[in-house]
Amino acid sequence: MLETRNSRRTIAQIAALIFVLLLGSPEVLAQAPSGFVVGTNSGVAPVVKNGEVIFKMRRGDCQKRPYGDGRGESDCANGNSRSQLNAREKQRMGRAYEYSMEIWVDPAFRYNGRGWGKVNYRSRLWIAEWQRSNTIKNHMYEMYLDSAKGVTFEDKRCFSPNRFGQWNSVVMRVKWSNGADGFLQVICNGREIYSLKGPNVMPPGCGEEWKQQCKPELQDLTKPILWSVGPSLKGHGMNYRDFGFPSAFPPFPEGGITLKMRNLYVGRIRS
């Protein structure tokens, strides 16, 4: 009887300790802010602390699950490293939306954006992307990060590396359309950096070397749009050996990247 009581007391003490630790910690793993979920293909989940989403990603943080599109590919097989949140509700053609967030990049972060053996037109590190859901090669727009250009959108600088270590606001206002009524505007730290009127669902450069995740012949305009945020390092693909690369995973700083976001929003356009 005494042994049973002691066992129960020990279990109760452990449970109480766990409760106190959880209650006293402002940090919760794999918790997403309202309206967002951890990305299905994320190799590592972000951390939420005091209203900030903290992404910490290293080379090789990948998901082994197959994409499910019949090609037999996965992030790990393709050399992709990823830690992302996805907007819970997908967006529709013919409707207007505002996407907004604030971004903080570790001031010590250094990455030139390149892969093995070649200079890329755009960085292999994406921190936000817009694509048509459940389709192949239907990426539309991305935000890129490297320590030479900073954060860019369609080759326009959003904020420079000297803004690393500070919070930066990003707002996109768009009406997704393949007609004359479409528009797209990107504002960074209160300054417009990109504007497009008319059709916007077939992005400039679709199918070019720097935008290989967009193939004009595969575009499906009937699909809803998925917004993802967080670092995603694009690999060299399953056939990396054919190009003489030593790994599907491109070079990346040993310490990885620390990136923070807050005030994530997608919804109607606000005044």
TrEMBL record:
Keywords: Lyase. Residues 65-87 are annotated as: Disordered. One of its GO terms (molecular function) is lyase activity. Residues 65-74 have a biased composition (Basic and acidic residues). Gene3D superfamilies: 2.60.120.200. Residues 77-86 have a biased composition (Polar residues). This is Polysaccharide lyase. It comes from Ruegeria marisflavi. The lineage of its organism: Bacteria, Pseudomonadati, Pseudomonadota, Alphaproteobacteria, Rhodobacterales.
